[in-house]
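Quick one, tokens below. Sequence please?
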């Protein structure tokens, strides 16, 4: 498949390099730091910096080859917005989520890192996600339950900063930082809108308050 572009806000390539990282999701309009040290991802970062600065973040499954595991169907393409090289040869980068994607197929290449052909149309509204109207009071119960869960797990969160953001930013940050399982985080990543994400949050949190606390997960 040729390296086509689609008519989204950021004119994104449909062929992207990917960084599979377990228990790590990124939402559009969020920024996160990455410490790059593995040779294939150092090379991937160098190639991305020399072109469009785009990399796809996606979670690997616990199946497939250990070095090239199977991947979940949905990830998020990100742009490298900050790049620094350390004295010991690592790259410290900051990435910003742009748009979620669905995998079409994996590219056969001669590179040491993986590339995918992806489709953004399932999440074409990501470019306007922060404009979605949603009252903060609708997630107050989620916030209280998460505060309790975070305390039990020993997580420290700046709740005042979160409460000063809009609902999209808050739910995205909590989805990314939560002590949920890989599958539960993936469920949140794949939600189409804030109402669906709120419902999935509530369902997931209900499993943590059950008698099967720490063992039962949402399927």
């Amino acid at each position: 498949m040729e390296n086509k572009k689609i008519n989204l806000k950021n004119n994104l390539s449909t062929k992207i390099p990917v960084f599979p990282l377990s228990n790590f999701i990124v939402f559009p309009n969020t920024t996160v730091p990455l410490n790059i040290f593995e040779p294939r991802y150092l090379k991937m970062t160098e190639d991305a910096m020399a072109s469009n600065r785009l990399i796809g973040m996606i979670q690997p499954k616990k199946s497939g080859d250990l070095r090239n595991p199977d991947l979940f169907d949905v990830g998020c393409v990100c742009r490298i917005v900050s790049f620094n090289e350390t004295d010991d040869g690592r790259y410290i980068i900051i990435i910003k989520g742009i748009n979620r994607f669905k995998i079409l197929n994996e590219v056969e290449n001669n590179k040491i890192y993986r590339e995918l052909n992806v489709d953004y149309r399932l999440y074409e509204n990501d470019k306007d996600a922060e404009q979605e109207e949603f009252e903060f009071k609708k997630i107050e119960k989620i916030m209280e339950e998460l505060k309790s869960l975070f305390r039990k797990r020993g997580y420290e969160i700046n709740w005042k900063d979160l409460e000063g953001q809009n609902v999209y930013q808050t739910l995205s940050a909590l989805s990314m930082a939560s002590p949920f399982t890989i599958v539960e985080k993936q469920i949140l990543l794949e939600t189409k809108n804030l109402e669906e994400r709120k419902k999935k949050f509530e369902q997931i949190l209900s499993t943590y308050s059950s008698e099967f606390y720490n063992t039962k997960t949402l399927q």
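Residues 187 and 195 are 14 Å apart (CA to CA). Residues 194-208 form the longest helix (15 residues).
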